[in-house]
Structures are given as structure tokens and as C-alpha cells.
Amino acid sequence: MNIPVKQASASTISCSNCKACCCRLEVLVISDTGVPEEFIKIDQYGGETMKRLNDGWCAALDRETFMCTIYENRPWICREFEMGSYECIDERMAFLS
Ligand code: SF4
Ligand code: SF4
Questions:
Q1: Which of 25, 68, 73, 82 is most exposed, with the fewest beta carbons within 10 Å of its own?
Q2: Ligand 2 shell residues, CB under 6 Å
Q3: Which residues constitute the domain of residue 18?
Q4: Can you give the pLDDT at residue 96?
């Protein structure tokens, strides 16, 4: 069950009670970590971002499990995104509450 973030203390914030909220953000692909091409969108300036589908989530996210299907090859930004950080809490508030 997802815990509404307003009732959740920092210790209850976990990816396991989230719905991959951070995987709805724009993710720039700024270094080569081996992201498969089919998940990359190239903008008009040649910049690379993770493709997102109409439901808002990254194309590489498993919609059943909310797990990353390319975990070993995920972009650097995904590796750096910290659970419990301000950005994480902001995304949870925006999407789960
Ligand atoms: S890092 Fe934060 S926003 Fe991303 S899945 Fe985990 S709890 Fe959710
Ligand atoms: S590559 Fe994986 S971790 Fe990064 S946004 Fe997509 S599904 Fe989430």
C-alpha cells in the first residue's frame, strides 16, 4: 500500500511504497551507460533524453512492478537520484498525494 506522503515520515519514504514517481521526470542521457536506443528520444538540438510514454512514465519502466527494466544500464542521472532527497519528496507529493 502506498502511504500518503503527508503522513509519511522520512523513515517511511521508500521506493517500495512509491510508484516510481521519479521515473516521470525528464531524464537527460549525458553519458554512455549503454541505454538501449529504443528508449532514447533525440530532441531538435540533438540532445538525448529518456523516452516517456503517454502515461507519463519513462519507456524503460515496467508498468506492473514499477521497476526499471534497464537497471544495469540506466542513465547516470537515475543512478544519482537519491531516495528521500528533496527532489524525491517533491515528486512523491506531486504524484502520490
Ligand atoms: S527515489 Fe523517491 S520518487 Fe523515486 S521511486 Fe524511490 S521513493 Fe519514489
Ligand atoms: S531509466 Fe530506469 S530508473 Fe531511469 S527513469 Fe527510466 S525507468 Fe526510471
A1: 82
A2: 23, 27, 50, 58, 60-61, 68, 70, 74-75, 78
A3: 5-96
A4: 87
Pocket mutation for ligand 2, best pick of 50, 73, 76, 77 (most atoms within 8 Å of C-beta)? 50
Q: For ligand 1, is residue 22 a contact (CB within 6 Å)?
A: yes
Q: What's the total number of domains in the chain?
A: 1
Mean confidence (pLDDT) of the chain? 91
User: Which tens digits make up the pLDDT trace of 47-91?
Assistant: 999 999 999 999 999 999 999 999 999 999 999 999 999 999 999
Contact in structure between 19 and 28 (CB atoms under 8 Å): no
Residues 5, 78: Cα–Cα separation, whole Å: 21
The answer to whether 18 touches 24, Cβ cutoff 8 Å, is no
